[in-house]
Design goal:
The chain has 6 helices and 6 strands; from the N terminus they run αββαβαββαααβ. By secondary structure, the protein is of the alpha+beta class.
Amino acid sequence: RACCRLTGGAAAASGVSCRAPGSMGSEKTPTQLAIGYTAFAVSVAAAAYITTKALYAVFTAYVVRYHKELAEAEAQELRKSPRQFTPSELAKHDGRNPRHCLFMAVKGRVIDVHELGAEFYGPGGPYKHLAGRDGSKALALMSLKAEDAIADLAGLTEDQLEVLDDWAKKLYEKYPLVGQLVPERPATSS
């Protein structure tokens, strides 16, 4: 039809109307057609966005679950055959990365707290500063300060060392041993 060759306002100003392709007899002005096509395009874009978000959420959940399964397998293996951890290796087990289980050290012994202690030692927990490190001094001082979560016991009193021994005994009974903390390995030059 002639009106379909006219653009926007020219067809509307001339009072001519057009039918939408595939429509059954309903007359539309070019402005109505433009609004209809725009609404359709927005609907398609919204559907694509929602679908993409849903697929991303499913993918993310799958990846997190996969990493947790790997971490659990690692923890099970370490319970059978504990290994040595350097402080930087232990730091990876602070609960922020699902690829690594939640570990902490007490008096140099690395224990797995991810199953029974995640709410206490994991991100957001009251003892989160102990995760991924040897926080023996903080236990001896009964401190929640992150700066006290260190392995150095220098300057502690006999009473504080007894408190640490009590904590160590309780934690060793409750959580499985997965390793021993060792000093950082010296960097090798190539």
